[in-house]
Amino acid sequence: MSQPIKIGIVGVGKIVRDQHLPALAKDQDYRLVAAASRHGKVEGIPNFPTIEAMLDAVPELEAVSLCMPPQFRYDAARTALEAKKHVFLEKPPGATVSEVEDLKALAARQGVSLFASWHSRYAPAVEAARGFLASTRIRLAAIVWKEDVRRWHPNQDWIWAPGGFGVFDPGINALSIATHILPAMFITSAVLDFPENRAAPVAAQVAFRTSNGLPVTMELDWLQTGPQSWDILADTDAGKMVLSGGGSKLAIDGQVVHEEPEAEYPMLYKRFAEIVRAGTSDVDLAPLQHVADAFMLGKRNVVDAFFD
Ligand code: NAP
Prior knowledge:
Blueprint: E1 5-10, H1 14-25, E2 30-36, E3 47-48, H2 51-57, E4 63-66, H3 73-82, E5 86-89, H4 97-110, E6 114-116, H5 126-134, E7 138-146, H6 149-152, H7 168-181, E8 185-195, E9 203-210, E10 215-221, E11 229-236, E12 239-244, E13 249-252, E14 255-259, H8 264-278, H9 286-297, E15 299-303
Parallel strand pairs: 1-2, 1-4, 2-3, 4-5, 5-6, 7-10, 8-15
Antiparallel strand pairs: 7-11, 8-9, 9-10, 11-12, 12-13, 13-14
Helix pairs in contact: 3-4, 7-9
The structure holds NADP nicotinamide-adenine-dinucleotide phosphate.
């Protein structure tokens, strides 16, 4: 086996503690050697206040995972790429399409790997859904992503700020699956509900069409209490498909055909090691492009103020 990749983590917050640290701890492909964050700390390794300080002090670092909110990721990514480090970007890979294109070009010039990670694409039933849809004729598809923002994103101000995407922060997870399992599509109309005291939407209704005319709808809602819905449905010649639980369970005509425990972050790190060792990048911007298009084409509705 090759030597473990010496990796550093930047932006130590919720997703680092929930997913990155447990995934890295079990992965023999990596050795976590440092972390950089203004307040957050990772026990047992050197911690630095900034990525610059970390890169200066730990020159043996080969790769970094950038886990801060998307509005603050570009500068850190540029710094890491200029230092010839491989870069893992949390989702969404940036706040704009063009800044990520710029990073992709920089990674190519520097001869290092850039990974725009989309964790939901690695949910356990996604490949089975993709295979099923490829084997039949789709008549229509619907994305229904409804969750409780107070439960999943308590007191995260960045998510309501420009570039935080609001309800499209979870919505882009749905789009990362949809763009992997459905034919290429584009937005034909959208309505975005902005709370009167916030700069990002709390709900959205989006209509897409594929190039061969298939209708796809997307309903996003961040005020859903009780059961949460992270579902993609399709009517097909081979039956009704329901991919539920954020991609973890697949049913056809009510029969569960695929369900297994999720391992999204271990799979993301496996993919990152693969591209680092192959000397390539993996940067699919389709989900981010759809979010940009929704903001560009969408009608803006002002709705009741939102308070945490
Ligand atoms: P978070 O805990 O609010 O932020 C992560 C860390 O980023 C913070 O703890 C903070 O650490 C740092 N940070 C915040 N503002 C910053 C700024 N202005 N400049 C530099 N660093 C800053 O958020 P999160 O939930 O971990 O989400 C981070 C990313 O992961 C987002 O892109 C999100 O979409 C993605 N993600 C989140 C989840 C989830 O369940 N929460 C799931 C999958 C993916 P310091 O104060 O120590 O610098």
